[in-house]
UniProtKB/TrEMBL annotation:
<dbReference type="InterPro" id="IPR050900">
    <property type="entry name" value="Transposase_IS3/IS150/IS904"/>
</dbReference>
<dbReference type="GO" id="GO:0015074">
    <property type="term" value="P:DNA integration"/>
</dbReference>
<dbReference type="Pfam" id="PF13683">
    <property type="entry name" value="rve_3"/>
</dbReference>
<dbReference type="InterPro" id="IPR001584">
    <property type="entry name" value="Integrase_cat-core"/>
</dbReference>
<feature type="region of interest" description="Disordered">
    <location>
        <begin position="67"/>
        <end position="89"/>
    </location>
</feature>
<protein>
    <submittedName>
        <fullName>Integrase core domain-containing protein</fullName>
    </submittedName>
</protein>
<feature type="domain" description="Integrase catalytic">
    <location>
        <begin position="1"/>
        <end position="64"/>
    </location>
</feature>
<dbReference type="InterPro" id="IPR012337">
    <property type="entry name" value="RNaseH-like_sf"/>
</dbReference>
Length: 89
C-alpha cells in the first residue's frame, strides 16, 4: 500500500471505512454518545482495536499489525519506532 495510482489502496480504505461505519457511526446516529468528545474517544478506541486486535479473514485471521510484522520482519516501515531509530542513527 502507499504507491501513487494503486487501486488496492482505495479498496483497503473502502473496507476500513465500511467497517467503521457499520460498527461505530450507527452508534453515533442512535444517540449512544453523550457528546462529540465521547464519539471521538470511541473512534480512537475503535481504530486502535481495528489495527491491533481485530482479526481479518483476508490477513489469515491476524490483526493488520500482526500481519505486517509477520510478513515484513526486516522492514522498518512495519515498526515506526524502528524507522525513527534508523533515521536518528
Amino acid at each position: 500500500m502507499g504507491r501513487v495510482g494503486s487501486c488496492f489502496d482505495n479498496a483497503a480504505a473502502e473496507t476500513f471505512f465500511a467497517a467503521y461505519k457499520r460498527e461505530t457511526v450507527t452508534m453515533l446516529e442512535s444517540g449512544r454518545f453523550a457528546d462529540e468528545a465521547e464519539a471521538r474517544r470511541e473512534t480512537f478506541r475503535w481504530i486502535a482495536f481495528y489495527n491491533h486486535k481485530r482479526r481479518h479473514p483476508r490477513a489469515g485471521m491476524f490483526s493488520p499489525v500482526d500481519y505486517e510484522q509477520r510478513h515484513r520482519p526486516n522492514d522498518t516501515n512495519a515498526d515506526p519506532a524502528a524507522a525513527l531509530m534508523s533515521i536518528a542513527a
